[in-house]
Amino acid sequence: MKCPNCQFDNTEDSSFCRKCGTQLPFSADIQFSKTMTLDTTTKIMSAGSLFAGRYKILGVLGQGGMGIVYQAEDIKLKRTVALKFLPAELSRYPEAKERFIREAQAAAVLDHPNICTVHEVEESEGITYIAIAYVKGQSLREKISKKPLDVDQAVDIALQVAEGLEAAHRRGIVHRDIKSGNIMVREDGQARIMDFGLAKVAGESRLTREAKTMGTVAYMSPEQARGEETDHRTDIWSLGVVLYEMLTGALPFRGERETSIMYAIVHEEPRPLQKLKPGVPIEISKIVEKAMKKDRSARYASAAEMARDLRKYQEAKRAEAAGVFNLRSLLRHLRKPQVAIPVSLAIIAISALAFWSLNRQAKIRWARDEVLPEVSRLYEKDDYSAAFDQINRIRGYISQSPELIEIIPEIERTISVETDPPRAEVFIRDYRDPVR
Fold it and tell me: Comparing C-alpha atoms, which of 192, 322, 318, 213 is closest to residue 266?
């Protein structure tokens, strides 16, 4: 397909122009034709057929390099799922089958609203498959192909992905293939990370080929392109590329061949965001630049750190908008002839409102940047009592934080105590505290 921007003739399965980096107007996920087969003898399963005794096939969703995907109904649990099948030609290779299974195992241990849920991994009728939650929406790549996203929408999606990655990284799981095609966006705006097919789990032996260059070329980190050992910071680089892509509609590095793209990733600097999309806030440009530092030690140390900067931008913008709105509303009110408020009282009211807003934002930042990491640390150490005490300090500020929503059910319990005599004083002490 020819690029609409530079007219370069790209290969059939390209998702972006290999010369100028422009997003091409179709998804890289190859759509099925009715003549495609699961192997050399079996035709693609038709709608209405039953697989593994429980999955009613509803239709074909697509195909990627590591799997075939159907939409199906789990007739036992009455839910819609996506069934991902390992292509038969790859099933003959133990390496490919192992990687496919490891995708499910890596994702199955993760329970986070921004990571797609894996229901099961099984083998039936000689075919290995994964049942995952069906996400009604579209891939981020499809959204970007229509037009670049506005800053607020891009920041919101990047923040959700960063929070999902942090949950994976805390468990020692590195995705290693973060790209717009592996991020689904639901109709309500919730983003979910898909496809842990290239995930590296800390402590597991690597497959031979995984020591080499893996992942989609345009989103590779420099260390991936060089074939070096990777860690969680390679996901941070790739998220920086995705944020760049959301804002501009193009990828930061370009070339006519994969080798030239990889050379650019390692040796060249990306085209400045401001030149491609004037008006991008300087705070966002700095976030992208830090995420895409070629020296990984200069990048964000964690996805949580990147998320904090994205969140700070959102909070500052909301505070600014709220302050301007409240001030304008008050001034309009004061202009009315029937309102006789002394100027001094109006100034006091405005000052008090500004002070309250600034103080509130400061408390929210304190809760997120200082207390919440301590809650996570205590939770990981199984010190639930101390974590609970810290949570009580910040409930009034970030009660809807995804991290708190995930942790609180694990440590909070409601108990009822009946005393004899009634109204006796009851004291609770952590069982690990020394007896006094």
Answer: 213
Query: Can you list the pairs that 120-129 forms with residues at least 24 positions away whose Cβ atoms lie under 8 Å?
Result: 122/52, 124/51, 124/52, 124/53, 125/51, 125/52, 127/38, 127/85, 127/86, 127/88, 127/91, 128/85, 128/86, 128/91, 128/97, 128/100, 128/101, 129/51, 129/52, 129/83, 129/84, 129/85, 129/86
Helices (H) and strands (E) in the chain, counts: 14, 11
Catalytic residue among 177, 195, 235, 309: 177
301-359 pLDDT, tens digit each: 999 999 999 999 999 888 777 766 555 555 555 555 555 556 556 667 777 777 777 77
Global pTM reads 0.65
Q: What values do phi and psi take at 29, rounded to 5?
A: -70, 120
189: left (phi over 0), alpha (psi -120 to 50) or beta: left
SS3 at position 422: coil
CB 213 within 8 A of CB 225: yes
Tell me how crowded residue 401 is: count the other CB atoms within 10 A of its CB: 20
C-beta separation of 272 from 284 below 8 A: no
Tokens, residue 145: 């192909």
Task: Let me know: does 184 contact 116? Beta carbons within 8 Å.
Answer: yes
Largest Cα–Cα distance of the chain, in whole Å? 87
The CA R_g of the chain, rounded to the nearest whole Å, is: 26
CA dihedral 401, 405, 177, 133 (to 10 degrees): -130
| Phi-psi label, residue 49: left if phi above 0, alpha if psi -120 to 50, beta otherwise | beta
H-helix or E-strand containing 31?
A: none
Residue 163 φ then ψ, to 5°: -70, -40
Which ranges in 41-181 belong to alpha helices (H)? 88-91, 94-108, 140-146, 151-170
Please state, in angstroms and as integers, the Cα–Cα distance from residue 109 to each residue in 9, 130, 378, following that order.
42, 14, 20
Residues β-bridged to residue 132? 82, 118
Q: What angle do CA 63, 65, 68 make, to 5 degrees?
A: 30
| pLDDT tens-digit series, residues 230-253 | 999 999 999 999 999 999 999 999
CB 216, CB 176: distance < 8 Å: no
Single-letter code of the amino acid located at 34: K
- Catalytic residue check, 177: yes
Q: How long is the chain?
A: 436
